[in-house]
Structures are given as structure tokens and as C-alpha cells.
Amino acid sequence: MPERADPLGDPDDAARLLAASLARAADADPTPREAAVGLFRRHLARMQQSVRDDFEAHRVAGEAAACRLSELTDGVIRTLYDFTFSDALVELAPFADGLAVAATGGYGRGTLAPFSDIDLLFLTDDDPPPALLGAVEFMLYFLWDLGLKVGHATRSVRECIDEAADDTTVRTTLLDARRIAGDETLFAGFQARYIVACVEAGPANFIADKQRERSVRHGRYGESPFLVEPNIKEGRGGLRDMQTLYWLCRYTLGIRHFMELAAPRDISPGTGEASRPSGLPGGGLLTDQEANRARRCWDFLWTVRFHLHYIAGRAEERLTFDMQPVVGARMGYTRHGRQVGVERFMRHYFLNAREVMRLTHVLEPAVLRAVLGPPAVAPEADADLLEAGFVLADGQILPGPGVSFEAQPIAMLRMLLLARDRNLLIHPLAMHALIRWERRAAELRGDAEANRILISLVCGERPVRRPMDEDARREARHAEDPRSGARWLHVLNETGLLGRLIPPWSRIVGQMQFDTYHVFTVDEHTIEAVRILGTLEAGLLAEETPVANDLVLDLQSRRALYLATLMHDIAKGRGGDHSELGSEMALELCPMLGLSAEETETVSWLVLHHLLLSQTAFRRDIDDPKTILDIADTIQSPERLRLLLILTVVDMRAVSPKVWNNWKATLLRELYTRVAEVLAGGLATAERDVRVLRAKEAAALVMAEDGLDRADIDRFLDLGYGGYWLSFDPETHARHARMIRDSELRDAPLTVETQPLPARAVTEVTVYAPDHAGLFSRIAGALAMAGASIVDARIHTMTNGMALDTFWVQDASDDTFDAPHRLARLSVLVEQALSGRIDLGDEIAKLSRTALGRRMRAIHVPPRVVIDNRASNTHTVIEVNGRDRPGLLHDVTGAMNRQGLQIASAHITTYGVRAVDVFYVKDVFGLKIGNERKLDEIREALLLVLRQAEEAVVSPAPVPVRRRGASVSG
């Protein structure tokens, strides 16, 4: 059977149906009001249900449903008007010619949401009789009894004109006034007078008022369009923003639909501005593609709004978490791979919101230019600015004549850099041009100048810390620094340039996580993290994050930290571990952006581990020593720990203002402190003192059981510093005591003791000798010559000036280095190395050329040296990162020795082919190295050693000798 036609499908038919029902009820007498209300109410319910059924069956979309609901409501209002004067208040029929009922606001435009107010204007002559006002009152009460929300005003023509002149809100409401019923002549006269009044008032004030209203509204509902619970009507990128654009075009150009703005056009050179063809008011201000996007955004937002109203059963405009999955499912968004339907829906919403923002940047300046004329270019622009191809208008930068972003896409980035450096705002016409031609930015990928500018914009300028009181600090904390990276990232993101320059970025624009933890989309969260990093650098978070506040001062890897912050979530929404995927992406993106190999690896590592500290601090027992040791084993170096702590702080604070609190700050601070002390070879002072005392007591007990007398025990207990007692167990302490006693009894200048430890698959090599410059380097070289792979090492200087150095070594097969002849040779080589009877440099060079194979060559380890004078009050800390190879420790420490450095303590580790060695050093006078020139010399000397290790990779060789996990303190 054919589907039965909906009797309410045609608005005119629906109105006639209601009128016929009223006529049947009246018979020969006036219809009682209560009966009429019942008839209207039933008709209204059927009418609304008809629209809902068609909408939810996807027979009509949002805008079409809004138009149909508006048309059906028109029929109800017309029928009520007729009922009022022909039936209920027939005695007032003579006054009907002095009244017109008009729809205003959104209803006047012919769109109506299911539970929105019905805005009505009861238009009268200048002096309406009281009886006519009684008819208005009757209609209003009738509509209220139907359960409708009516926004109403009763004004004469003169009052409308006067109030519109004084109040932009009234003037806006009347822009789309549309007669529904009543006196046509009266309404036509009002329209004529209103148009004349608008022309006389001019567009300037109206435009300024609407822009001011929008700014206030954004401040109230959120400046970002990417809040994860957006207000689809009032929020940025929502319906009201599109309506504001419509009002500007309607008031200034007389258009009624965005599609009227598209027409064949000529493009003006420079800004890409479309000239308006004659005879087409507003035609050509948008391209066909832009106009179609505007139409799709309008329809999408209306569709979401209809679903919201129907689900909530009221005029709900906020897309809250409980609404999002329901709306998404009703709109057909389902799981795709690992991304759930609600996240796909919300990403589509946010992309629409961004499109509305972009449309604003494109259309609004075009309207202003079409209506008010081109901006007046300031003649006082300096020569450098003019030479660069840019001018100023109203104090804002825009491309000058002859500069085309289409032909010169690099000019887009140059303009942004100039705006940043000169603290200039970007002219709306310039924003228009950036959006129009953003696709051309794809040509700049890999361009050296583009990379330099982009990274400069992202990192911003290093802020200068200035003293300020708490009130000023609080205000500065929430204000956006015009030179900060976040401000320019917002511009790059809104215009689409960032997604063109960094393609994976476009995948996270509008990407959200469906949880109540994050309040921003991924892209907005990332930009917020960059903003907080700049705030931290400026010293504005000293009280909330004191440790990070101090660490950020002298970072060696500032660019890497900013790029890691930019990329830490860049792989979200792709399925899998976003940290691992993002780390791999960073390895591809960073070289494309012009970062060095060392910076690339740092960024990749930070992205991979950016959740490590927060997850450990909040989910693990940080009082468990193993937890701290596991973290230290992953982080490997103090510089990485500093970078990771700062990234953790900014990442957490960028999630939501509610996420960060003093408790979490305390946990992170404690974790950082404990890990830092492990990497430095020690523990906290209070805990350290207790443990040192306990270690001495335990060692004394074991030594007494071994037969040492009290004098020998007391003497030995006085030899070691705190770090020594915490580095070994009591049995090892007792063994060292016997070795030192025997060495002193023999008056031996050198004692080398080896002890295989099969349970640990290592051999322990202990060297007791007079401490002198280069001792560590020579022993390390001798072990390399012996074919021993150092897997751990601890070096201590005793109070008697002797060095007690312990190394744990393996053979090339990762087994115990225990062959008697090899142990004997090892001892001989150590003795020869310390006595100077062999040339370690030549021997190690030969060894390096034959010990590096294909496995080593497959992995690139960029050399890196970080020198930090803030990590210690008494020492300069040098962190060396590079490729491991036989003799690396010998070469690195030898270079330090040649630079006149005394190694007070060290932490030496190797992870696979990476060596990460940290040294605490002083100069020959026992002081920190403060001379910058000297620091540069040290850095270059160490880098030379590391580069030589990397160059040695080109030589084919058998399996490499490895060194792993050595921690040294003294």
C-alpha cells in the first residue's frame, strides 16, 4: 500500500485543517475559549510530532526541519489571529486593521527550534486604542495556555524606529521582521521607515555593536570553540556566530542567505580579496566552496540543535557529555576502528566550529571592505616593513600592493613573524587572505626559511623574568603574552597553516577524548600546554611549581622541549599507544622541520615517555625503592629528567585548571627529587645519613665476625664517604677492608683484585691505587683493551687520598669474564696502563676500528653534551650522550683530564648502543667552571670525542663491546 500522506505536511493545509476544526466546533455560536485551547493544543501536538517524526526518520535535516516548524507555527498564529477577531472577540473586528502580527529574530528568518521562544511583534498605529491592546493580551494568554514560550513586544511604528535607533538588539531583532497576519499596509509602512532609518544610521555603529556583543558572549561562554562540552548556540563557532555574520550581511548588503554571497568574481592582487560585481549586493564575497561550507555548517548546527532539544525535552543548547553519545548515535556516527562513534561525532562538530571561525575571518573583513571601503594604509610605516612587502592599516599589519600569498606562500609566515617581533595585530583582511590561501602553505614543507620561522613562532621569545607582586603575577598568568608561542599557534591553527606545514597536526584538530578529565580538544590542549610552558618560563608559576620554575631557567634543550610539547599528543585518535606512535612521528617530523639529530631524538624520547612521571607519581608507591630505580633506568640522565618533569607539569596543567593541585605537585616533586638523587648516585640527606649509619654498623659487625680487630675496623670506617657506604653490601665492605689492610701491610702502590660472580654473570674488578688525574680514564682504557665490557662501575675517593674503583665486567657474549688467563691479562693491562707503559690512545683506536659492526651502524646515536651549573651548588655537571664503543669512557674522561677537570663523581650508563655518562667536576682550583669560554672549550672537546665514536660506525667489524648500567660516585 502507498504510504499515507501526512495531513500536516503542507503548512497551508495544516492551517486550513485547524481553521476547519474551529469552524465545526463553533457551529452557530462562538467557540468557548477552553474548547478552542483544546483544539489548538491537539493541533500543535500533532504538528510538532509530525516535524519530529520526519526529522528523526531523516526525511528532513536540521535547517529544513526548522523552516517547516516555523511555517507550521505561522499557521497557528494566523489562525489564532483570525479566531480572535472573527470568533472570540468579534466586537473588536473594526480595530483589526490597526494591528499586524510579525515574527522577529530567528523566527522572523523562518527558522524555529522545537523548544525555542516564538518572538512576536504586535505592530500598531502610533496611538492604538485600548481595545486593540486587549486583543493583543487575549492572543498572548492564549499562546501561553498552549504551553508556548513567547517573546513579545507591542510597539507602534514610531516606537519601533525610535527603539531601534537607541538599541542595537532591537534593531537586530527587527532586521528580519516578517508579517504573519494583520494589516499589510501598516507593516509595509513600518518596513519602509525602518529601511530608511537604517540607511540614515549607517553601518559603522551597527557593525561595531555586533562585534562588541560577540566579544562579550565569547568571554561568557568560552573564547575557545574547542571546549569539550560546547554551547552550540552561544559558544564560539556556534549558531550565534553564524547569525552575527548573517546580521552583518543582512544589514549592510541586504542578503538573506549565504549563497547569495557567491558569484563569479575577480581576485584582487595581494590579499586575495574578491571584488563585488556590480548589480549583485554582496555577490563574490565568498567563493562557491566557502558559501557551500557555510550552508553545510548552518545545517549541521541546526541538526545538532534539533536533536538536543528533542533528547532533553527542553531548549537545551549545551552539548554535554551525557548528550554527546546520544546525539552522535542519532546522527549515525558509529565506531570506526578504535575510535568510538561519539568521538567521531564530536570531532565533526569541532571541525564545523573551526569552519565557522574561518568563515568569520573570511567574510567579515570582506563585508567591511565592501561597505566601508578599503582600509587606509598608514603612511608612517617604516622602510623595513615596506621593503618586506607589508603595510599598516589601523595599526595592524597586512600585505602591501603586489604581495600575493598565492604566488608567495612564504610571505604568510614572514608576516606572522613580523607581527610577533613588532607586537602587531593582524589585520582582518590579512587573516582573510591567510585562510583563503592556506593550502599553498603545503609547498613550504621542508623549506629552510619556513622551518626557521615556524619554530621561532612555536617557541616564542625566551621571556625575561621581572619582579612583580602577587596581584600583577596573577594577572600576567592569565593574560596571553603577544610574543608567546601559544598566541601564534592559535593563528596558525585557525587559519589552517599549521596543518599544512605539519600534516599529522590536521588529524588532531577537533579531536577529543570522551571523558570528563579533558576539557579541550587535543589541538587546543596542546596549544594550552605551550602557553603554560611560556608562563612557566616567565616565572609566573613559581609558587605552584617551584622545582619546574627553577629547572626551566637554564635548559640546554629549549627548542626540543617546545617541539615535544607541540607533538606530545599528535598521534591521538589513531589507535594504539599514542606515545609510541607520536614518538615515531617525531622522528619523521623533526628533521623535516630542520631540527638536528640530537634534538630530534630528544623530542622523540620525550613524546614516548611524556606520561611516565605522572603515571608513576599517581599510580605507584614512590616510597618503594624499586619504583624509583625503574624510573631512573628509563630516564637515564638528569637533563632528560628535567625536561620530562617540565613537560609533565605543563601537560597536566593544560588538561584542566582543576587537574593540578598541591597534592599532585607534591607527589611529582618528591618523585623528581628521588629520581634525581638516584641519577646523581645518592639519596636525600636525612634518609642518606640514617642509611649510612646503618651500613657502617652492619659492615662493622661482619668485619668483627671475620676477625678484624677494633682498631682496623674503626680505621676503615673512617675511610669511606657517605656514597661509598651506600654503594655496597656489608660483605663487600668487609672484603674491601681486608684488601686495603693487606695493601697497606705490603706497602703496594697498586692492588687489583678480581672476583667472578656467576650468579650475576659478571666479574667484579676492584682497583685500589693513589688517586690522581686521569686514573679513571686509564683503568677504563685498560679494561677495554682486555676485551672486558663494562656493565657497571663505581668510583670512590677515600679520605686517605686513595681511589677505590670497582668495575663489573662481562665478556663479549654477555657472560662472566672468568677465564684465568684473561683475568691475569686484565690485571697486567691495568698495571701497565697506570704506569704508562702502553699507549692507550693508539691501542683503543685500533680496537674501535675493528669492533663496530653492522648492528651498531643501523642505529644512529647523535652526540650531545649538556653542561649545567645549576644542578649542583659546588660542581659543574656535564652530561655526555653518544654512541657506545670500546674505550669511550677512556676517551671522554681523558678529554676531561686534558681540560684540567677533576671528576668528583660520575654516573655512567649504557643502554644498548647509547652511552649516557654524567660527571660532577671541578677545575684545578677545586671550583665550579663559570667561564663561558672555558665551558665552550670543554663542550667542543667532548663533542669531538663523541663524533669520532659516531664516525667509527662506518667501519665494518664483529659484535661490539658493550657497557651498560654503570653508576659511579665518590
From TrEMBL:
Lineage of source species: Bacteria, Pseudomonadati, Pseudomonadota, Alphaproteobacteria, Acetobacterales
Q: Domain (HD): give its ranges.
A: 522-638
Q: Describe the reaction catalysed, as an equation.
A: [protein-PII]-uridylyl-L-tyrosine + H2O = [protein-PII]-L-tyrosine + UMP + H(+); [protein-PII]-L-tyrosine + UTP = [protein-PII]-uridylyl-L-tyrosine + diphosphate
Write out the similarity annotation.
Belongs to the GlnD family.
Keywords, A to Z? Answer: Hydrolase, Magnesium, Multifunctional enzyme, Nucleotidyltransferase, Repeat, Transferase
Activity regulation description: Uridylyltransferase (UTase) activity is inhibited by glutamine, while glutamine activates uridylyl-removing (UR) activity.
What is the superkingdom listed in this entry's lineage? Bacteria
Could you tell me what this protein does? Modifies, by uridylylation and deuridylylation, the PII regulatory proteins (GlnB and homologs), in response to the nitrogen status of the cell that GlnD senses through the glutamine level. Under low glutamine levels, catalyzes the conversion of the PII proteins and UTP to PII-UMP and PPi, while under higher glutamine levels, GlnD hydrolyzes PII-UMP to PII and UMP (deuridylylation). Thus, controls uridylylation state and activity of the PII proteins, and plays an important role in the regulation of nitrogen metabolism.
- Protein name, entry field: Bifunctional uridylyltransferase/uridylyl-removing enzyme
Q: Which SMART domains match?
A: HDc
Q: What are the start and end residues of every segment in region (Disordered)?
A: 267-286
Q: Which cofactor does it need?
A: Mg(2+)
Which gene underlies this protein? glnD
Region Uridylyltransferase: list its residue ranges. Answer: 1-385
